[in-house]
Amino acid sequence: MRYAPPKGTYDILPPAPGRSAVQDSEKWQWLEATFRDLCRLHGYAEIRTPIFESHELIHRSVGEGTDIVAKETFDFETKGGDSLTLRPEGTAGVMRAYVTNRLYIERPVGKLFYIGPNFRYERPQKGRYRQHHQAGAELLGAAGPEADAEVIALACAFYVRLGLRDMKVKLNTVGTPESRAAYVVALRAWAEPLLPQMSADNRRRYEQNALRMLDSKEPQDLELLSSAPVLSDYLDEASQAHFAAVKSYLEAMGLAYDEDPRLVRGFDYYTHTVFEIQSTVLGDKALGGGGRYNGLIEAVGGPSTPGIGFGLGLERVLLALEETGAALPEAVGLDAFLCPLGEAARAACVPLLATLRRSQIACDMDYTGRRMKVMLEQADQCGARFAVILGDDELAQGVATVRDMATKTQQSVALEALATCLSKISG
Ligand code: AMP
Fold first, then answer.
1. Are residues 166 and 289 in the same domain?
2. What are the phi and psi torsion angles at 363 (to 5°)?
3. Range of the structural domain that residue 400 is part of
4. pLDDT value at position 22?
5. What atom in ligand 1 is closest to the CA of residue 127?
6. pLDDT tens, position by position, 258-286
7. Bridge-partner residues for 170, per DSSP?
8. Are 14 and 25 in contact (CB under 8 A)?
9. I want to staple 124 with a disulfide (CB 3.0 to 4.6 A). Which of 8, 34, 145, 257 is the partner?
10. Ligand 1 binding pocket includes 27 (Cβ within 6 Å)
11. What is the CATH number of the domain that holds 145?
């Protein structure tokens, strides 16, 4: 019996010629290391939370009428009868952990980052999976626009450092819950006579959570929505001032953005600033996005604490980097591959490997007793800089033949000097 991976999932594998970046584990390590390094640079510490949380936490914080909760969550019941949901995004769990562990007591401003998988029951296609990964950051306890600007700058710095050339930042504000409520009244009044022309999804959204009508990607809805009222006309003065300050900070940092008055993003918890990062090569799919969520911590049982954060899709940035022809880092190969000829040489290689590794030389050996030609091919495949050849003659003399795989030149090196010699020549 052969098993396929579950629909909408894929395996991340060791690098190999022709393998896409999305399936190459070394590219993932590079992405993750880049994000970790940038987070450290900006003063963020890592948080790791469970990949499942209570059904209620996810459904209530993301919002009942959102597409994610209405259609995409993986909900299940444990044998003990608990209702759980695989996390579809990172923020709700991080907020729950912030409250559970009372992190607000440790520091007045909490800066947290995470990297991990999320689960959404979506129709799989390129750039859309049922298990995808996000790198995210959350800045908690700071209500001022400086925090918004920092968080947006951190997200942008990630793409710039990865070498993505065609990134665009879309920016909007959704104001306070009060201004949004006034807007939703107007939006519903506008939509009511148009309902027969709208998609079934938008008719459902109209009933359940009218703001979410703006999330529709259906052409028939998009055309109608182009004449819908815009949220910016319903903002109070404080919201407008906050947004103006965020924009001026972005300008002061030299960060380009496009204002998009129709951007609302698919979560209910946002207040004030929302942003999305796009790449032209991904069509209508966003690379990442985020926003402010001043009521969320309180809604999950914590003290009233402002917050802002983002989640960046890691599959999509790899796809975009590949599409734009950015130079991705090459796999790092071994320093040495040991090629023993015969039983005695193979036995001698076992302690030799251990000695080399203690000297920080990345090495491996042939375990299968293959022919020299095949062992050298294998050395090449693992990207080894040197093949260390050990046969009966070498053993008798206490030496090994060190072959430079690039120049194909060989030299004889005493076994006890091998570690020092390889460290020197491999730099
Ligand atoms: P969201 O949490 O919906 O704002 O998504 C943040 C980012 O995660 C998106 O911009 C995408 O890059 C990525 N993302 C969301 N859903 C998926 C998915 N089903 N497959 C792959 N990437 C996704």
1. yes
2. -150, 165
3. 336-425
4. 97
5. 21
6. 999 889 887 888 999 999 999 988 887 89
7. 258, 276
8. yes
9. 8
10. no
11. 3.30.930.10
pLDDT in tens, 321-375: 999 999 999 888 999 999 999 999 999 999 999 999 999 999 999 999 999 999 9
CA distances from 19 to 126, 140, 287, 325, 388 (A): 15, 39, 21, 15, 29
Does any domain span residue 228? no
Question: Based on the domain organization, do 385 and 245 belong to the same domain?
Answer: no
| Model confidence, pTM | 0.93
The domain total for the chain is 2
Contact 300, 307 (CB under 8 A): no
Domain identity same for 353 and 391: yes
Tokens of 268: 């209910």
Task: Tell me, yes or no, whether 270 and 403 share the same domain.
Answer: no
Structure tokens of 110? Answer: 């909490």
Atom of ligand 1 nearest to the CA of 68: 3
If one residue of 12, 316, 318 were mutated to test the ligand 1 pocket, choosing by the most ligand atoms within 8 A of its CB, it would be 316
Give yes or no for residue 136 CB within 6 A of ligand 1.
Answer: no
